[in-house]
Fold this sequence. Notes:
Layout: E1 14-25, H1 35-43, E2 46-57, E3 62-66, H2 73-81, E4 88-94, E5 97-100, H3 113-123, H4 128-133, H5 135-142, H6 157-170, E6 175-179, H7 187-202, E7 206-210, H8 214-218, E8 223-228, E9 231-237, H9 238-249
Helix pairs in contact: 3-6, 5-6
Amino acid sequence: MTEASSRARRTTASIEADGLGVRFLFDGQQRAVTPALARLRRRGSESWGLHGLDFRIGPGDGVALIGASGSGKTTLLRLVAGVLSPDTGRLDMTGSVGSLLSVEAGLHGLLTGRENAVLLGVLAGMSRAESQAALDEIKTDTRLEEAFDRPVLSYSEGMRARLGFAVADYANPDILVLDEVHEALDHEFRQIVAERAHKTLQDGGIVMAAGHDHPLLATFCDRALWLSDGQIAADGPFDEVRREYLEEVV
């Protein structure tokens, strides 16, 4: 992102959770989407994806969510992104949110990369004029070149991830949310993601990211929340929490 396109960032970004919980209900026609929910489903028709979460995140905090698959990482990021609403407790946030929750999130396969960029920009809070004005820069940042005017269904997973991240980054959110999508990226673009995350933090924003690539997360997250069965098992400096987690699972 060039300096000319960067907007002034508020330095009051914050996320506060008190007793935060999300409940999943199952009937005979529904499938459990994670191993953890499958186990819970066998115990009854109701399960908690998250339960009793309390935490505070402030300006300049880079927070990694670590834990086994099905532990609640994606559910928490979806709450922060506004995709889900809590069933219990509260989640208070200040600042705009930019998110990339999956490689496919918000992309329409029959539309071109250019058309998807405009659509994603509008969904991220930009006006259509702002989104249109961003196209040249997004095309450059994504390194899609001629592919920018091809349907997205012809894109590789990494190309789709680059497009989604470039649009989210251009919107210059106060809170940047990433869920494992960086793991679909090549080495060069992973470095770009890390640089953009650092810039967000330096400007007083917040970065929340989940994934299993701990070395990459460590480049821009100095704090970690370890989630286990929908609850916080540990919250503290990244290296310490990661060590506790690895000692538990290895």
